[in-house]
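Data availability (excerpt). The following record was deposited with the supplementary files.
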Amino acid sequence: MTQENLSKTASNETMVQMKNKGQGAFEYLLMLGGIVMIAVIVIVMVQSATSKANIAIAESEADYLRFIGESVRNALSWPIS
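Predicted structure:
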């Protein structure tokens, strides 16, 4: 190969490497965007599950307090013999 052909080949290889670097940066940004999206979805799911659990606990606590209150009232209303 002549010197001119070698320099053209080197120039083409450099351009390919530069294109690959740009493509790598874009892929890196896409990967970061995907990771952020997944993190947001997980956080929303955890918050949703936590709020539903808190509602269930509050309802359960209210039922328990109502049961205890009625039991105490019933026990106190029994006739003493």
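Summary of structural features: The longest helix spans residues 3-77.
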